[in-house]
Structure formats: C-alpha cells, structure tokens
Amino acid sequence: MILFNNISQIVLIILSVGLLISTLEYLKKVQIFSTKGLLSWNVMQLKWTKENQSPLLKPFFKLFSVPGLAMLFLIRCLLITGLLFFPLQSTVGWVLISLLGLSLLLASLVTHYGSDGSDQMSMLIIITLILCNMPALASNKLRDIGLWFIALQACLSYAVAGIAKLVSAEWRSGTAIKDVFSTKTYGSKKATLFLQKYPAANLFLCWNVIIMETIFPLCLFLPWPFALIFLVWGFIFHFFTAVIMGLNAFFWAFMATYPAIYFVNHQISWNLF
Amino acid sequence: MLKLTPTAIYELVITVILACWFLATILCQFKETGVSWFIRYKIDLFNLIPLWTFFAPHPGKRDYHLLFRDKTDDSYTEWHEMDITEERTFWSWLWNPEKRDKKILSDVVQSLVSSIPSYREKTGNLNLLMFSTPYIIVLHAVSHYKKHTENCYRQFMLAESAGYQKETTPSLILLSVFHQI
Predict the structure, then answer these.
(1) How far apart are CA A90 and CA A1, in angstroms?
(2) How many other C-beta atoms lie within 10 A of the C-beta of residue B13?
(3) Which residues pair with B174 in a beta bridge?
(4) Per UniProt, which keywords does this protein have (chain A) (predicted)?
(5) How far is A222 from chain B (nearest CA, A)?
(6) Is some CB atom of chain B closer than 8 A to the CB atom of A179?
(7) For chain B, which terminal residue's Cβ has fewer other Cβ atoms within 10 angstroms, N or C?
(8) Mean pLDDT of A123-140
C-alpha cells in the first residue's frame, strides 16, 4: 500500500506525473527517431563510435529504432503506472523504479540533443531513489541522505541559475524576459504584447527571478513559514513558465524536489530553532 | 565503533557516490574549465551532470529556421521551410510534444554556431564543419524531408529571426553547399 507520509514516495508520485506526460509526448513524436528523423540513430550513433565506447553499448543499438523506442516508451508508461500500486520500499516497487531508471538511461543515449534540465532533474531523482531504497541494504538514514541530495541539487539549480542571471547584463537591464517571450520557441504573443504595453514589468520580472533564484537555498535554513514563501514562489514561477513558455516538464520535475526541501528544512529547523 | 555490516558498507558507498555527484555538478557549472570539460565529455556518458544556468547568461532571443532548396539540371526550386517552429496550443502548459523538435533544432544550431569560430581559427574555412555531428544531423533531416525526385542536389540554410518582434529582419546563420541526396 502507498503511504503518503513517506517523503520519498511523495517525491516519486509527483515526478511520475511529469514522467508519464513526457513519455507520452515522446511516443507522439516517436517519428523523430525514424531513419528520416532529426534523431535518427543512423546519425546519432556517431557520438558513440569513439575509442572504447561502442563495445559496451553495442547490445542496445537495435533498440534505437522507431519500434524499439516505441516499445521502450510503452514499457516505461506501464512501469510508471505500476509504481502507483507498489510502494518504493517494497521489492516489487524497487524493481519497477530500477527498470524505469534503466529505460531513462538507455533513452538518454539517443536523446542527447533535445533533452533539457527537467530530464536531467528527473533522472537525478530516479537514480537517487533507486540507490537509496534498495531492499535489504538501504537504511532509513540512507533514505534521508537521498532526500538531502535531491534538496541540495534543487537549491543548487536555482542558485546557479540566479547567479548566472545576476552576472548577465541582459538580465540586469531587464530585457532578457521580453526577448525570450518574443520568440515563438519559448514565448507567447500575448506575453510579448503585455510586456510591450507595460515596460516596467520587464525590469520587475527579471529582478524578481534573479533575486529569488539566487537566494532560494535559504529555504533550507529559514523557519518553515518563511521557507514556504520560496516554495510558493517556485510553484508560481514554474506554473507560469509552463503556461507562457510551454516548459511543462520542468513544473513536475522541480515540484518533485519540494517535499525533499520540506524534509531537509524540518531537519535543520529542529536543530537550529 | 562502527560495525562493518553490509548495510553500513552500502550506506557509505552510496553516500560517497552522491557526494561525488554533487561535487561534480558544482564543478561543471563552470563551463570553460578543463575539469568541467573532462567530466562532461570523458566521464558523463549518460548526461547525468546537469548545467543549471537556465536562460543565462545569454538567453535565447531568436527562433531558428531550417530551409532548403533543390537543384535539378540548371534550375533551383523555391526555398522551403521545415515545419519546426510551430505556435503552441492552449494546452501546451500540460501537453507539449512539439517542444522536442524545437529543442533539438535549437540544440543542434547552438552547437553548430558555437563550433564555427574554432573551425575558422583552425582551418581558415568551414569545410571541416561538414563532418561535425550537428551538421550531419541537419543535413540528414533535410535530405529526407519532402524529397520529390531521386538524385537531386539539396542546399540548406539555417536562419534566425526574432519571433514576434517583427521590426527585426531574419538573418542568415549558415548556408550549406549543395549535397547530392
């Protein structure tokens, strides 16, 4: 039975929603892996033909065709569904998540181009959960260490993104968001018109993102009501990047880290305050 | 004293692995260093070390376009654009499969653009760029797209535009030679 008082399980459930959507999206676009597609294995295998890489990977090469990858994505959907019924700490649950992790690792060999930070965060969380929940060997302490790792990676991601924006003249001058929103790739016509109508909003949004991302790691140390401000900000931030920029997978991958942040905040708070 | 049970050994090993992973992630946030290059290109086979500098320091301000034309005998066809930069739908906040094509093209173009200066510096021209993976990816995709006749020659063009900012004119990034397809 799934227990919602288990933080690792909550992390997995939130992440599973995003992974299911992302996998179904890949299934819809599976033709990009065809011999005529952008990620055709005929071309993508060039990345793996160097020196000592190919012997290890050869057994998997047949998989990277349209039928092979469609099957892999279908199996992944079944694994994710199965994880709703078997707890992470059960043997069956651990086997399911391990197979899920394996499918993510395999697909990463062919999706070198086109994957983004949400894919990396998802992979990072899944591998951590696999390592830290191994039946018979994983202790409660190790599960806590896994949650610490996920929370620290999440905070690092925000802080690095914030600092990289802080050193950027385009972000400091308040033009970056307007410029990104004006692209068809990551923007929207309505958002562009809004920012053209209210130029002050550009500066406000840029500095809002710079400041909140840079100081985000404070949410690990602050008393919970103050830490919650950062998580609410993060929720709104990711929701709007999904709505305006179409970055839907980021929402689920980063929301999945918030229970881990909650866990670490409470462990630190109990010691500090 | 610490008792070396299988659980304790496993705990120690995994903790060390996670600590190394976190340290490698920190080191790899500095793109230009030798350590970062070594970890990224020599160790990180599965792309497990993230770069967390989303949209910074230089945010993507351009849309990329991939166009092609054919040469048959002595005539050229019109330029055709591959349908990649489609506008998003209302449901894209939840369901957005189209983002993959855009991201692939964006990654490939950025990889091409970033490698152009080094090719120019090393050889004085861009001939060797044709052997790079991003170039071959683009050429491969273009070669198979709406191919009408056998044995024709196809040229592709990578261009960029500023999306909804209509006052900015599109500009050329790369014009290929004609390739027999």
Answers:
(1) 9
(2) 13
(3) B158
(4) Membrane, Transmembrane, Transmembrane helix
(5) 22
(6) yes
(7) N
(8) 96
Q: What is the pLDDT along chain B (181 residues), one digit of tens a residue?
A: 667 899 999 999 999 999 999 999 999 998 778 899 999 888 898 899 999 999 988 898 888 888 999 988 778 899 998 877 667 888 999 999 988 888 888 888 888 888 888 888 887 777 888 988 889 999 998 888 877 777 789 999 999 888 787 667 789 989 999 999 8
Residue B144 CB neighbours (<10 A): 15
Half-sphere exposure of A7 toward its Cβ, with a 13 Å CA cutoff? 22
The ipTM, to two decimals, is: 0.94
Mutate to test the interface with A, among B4, B41, B96 (most CBs of A within 10 A): B96
Q: What percent of chain A has pLDDT over 70?
A: 93
Alpha helices in chain A (DSSP H): 7-28, 41-44, 54-57, 66-82, 91-108, 117-132, 140-166, 169-172, 176-181, 189-197, 199-214, 224-245, 248-255, 258-272
Please tell me the distance from the alpha carbon of residue B138 to that of residue A182, in angstroms, as a whole number. Answer: 25
How many angstroms from the chain centroid is the CA of residue A53? 27
Residues 126-145 of B with CB under 8 A from A: 133-134, 136-137, 140-141, 144-145
Record the tokens describing residue A215, joined without a space: 């100081």
- In order, the DSSP letters of B2-27 are ----HHHHHHHHHHHHHHHHHHHHHH
Size of interface A-B (CB pairs under 8 A): 209
